[in-house]
Amino acid sequence: MTETTGVRVFICGSALRGQPDHGNLQSATFIREAKTRPQYRLHSAADGWHPAIYEVADGGISIPGEVYKLTIAQYEHLLATEPPDMYPADVVLEDGEVLTAILYPRELIEKYGWEDISHLGGWAAYKASLAK
């Protein structure tokens, strides 16, 4: 990764367009909407404070999100603003592209018993369901 090439990141939570943490992307360049392959689960962590995503071998869903190009400084800022225990990891998109996303340890999700919201179709859909 270099400052000229930047970092392509898959965003699927509270930093999506229209979500409260979108500003954490600073002026990152929006590339496109995308979905992961159906190999992930999505939970509402800390009573809806942030999404918690992890990979599964079976029973996964395709998570909708957005692809952004960030400078190294923007990427470092994004990582610094993430909640505790979240970590960058590769995810596979529908088209096979592998990008970095911010995941959450499955063992902590299970430990805290956070609600599985995978069936709602993504973080923005979950947040919209709460506003009804």
Compact overview of the structure:
The chain is α+β, with helices and mostly antiparallel strands.
Can you put this structure into words, describing what you see?
The protein is of the alpha+beta class and 132 residues long. It has a single domain (7-120), classed as Roll (Hypothetical upf0131 protein ytfp), CATH 3.10.490.10. The chain contains three helices and eight strands; from the N terminus they run βββββαββαβα. It has helices at residues 72-81, 106-112, 123-130; strands at 7-11, 29-35, 40-45, 50-55, 64-70, 87-92, 98-103, 115-116. The strands form three sheets. A three-stranded antiparallel sheet has the order 1-5-2. Strands 4-3-8 form a three-stranded antiparallel sheet, with no helix packed on it. A two-stranded antiparallel sheet has the order 6-7. β6 (87-92) and β7 (98-103) form a beta hairpin. The protein is globular, with a radius of gyration of 14 Å. The model has no long low-confidence stretch (mean pLDDT 90).
